[in-house]
Please model this.
Amino acid sequence: MYTGTYNPAVAGRGKLLPEVLPRGRSGLPRGVVALSQRARAVKAMVEAVAEKGFLAVTVADITSRARISRTTFYEHFRDKEDCFLQAYEEGARLLYRDVLAAAERERGWFRRLQAGVRSYLENLDREPAYAKTFILEVLKVGPAALEKRAEVHARYAELLKASYAELRQELPLAGPLPESLFLSCVAAVNELVLERLRGGPPYRLGELEPEVLHVILSVFGFSAIGGVTLGWLASKGGSVGAGFSEGGWRA
Model:
């Protein structure tokens, strides 16, 4: 049953767009119907922005796609920007939750990192309209959207910080890193995704996994020059504590 938010991600296969109830009389309570109407508007916003771009989308575009009246739309949102911001916040929260769940199912810092990156990219691949709307088009919405985007980036930076802290427990010679590096790493990963989205569909974002991991590992201090590759880490199950010489670490 629709709960009024996006479907929870289940085992890495959840949807970031909402399920909606069929249009028409359903005999359901008014509150449930209202939630369904809101969900249709949010879904319509995502799809319309992915197709036309945020600046070109009108409230009429949203209401016609959602099959709701303008009155109903304004019962839920102040304007199209408010609709976008609410959709962005909910979708980002559940994408983050899915990434976190994927990471927590693994053991070892590298496998957790890899699982989180894979979940992030695969979720975006499964929902291309979401990816384009909330990663590319968010840049055109305005200051409020950029502020929410910064909050999301900070959340992922904290995940990277926690991953690096776990690595340091295993490899004490890895020194502390400036806080700003984790946020810079998130920005670099975001730019990789942005460039792929700008190239047009099919996006095949999952193909970026090796590049994303290389960016993160470079920030962590690993270097292919020092003999550290993704295959090397995977072969050790993400463990670098045994047999890893100081010469192979570039901090």
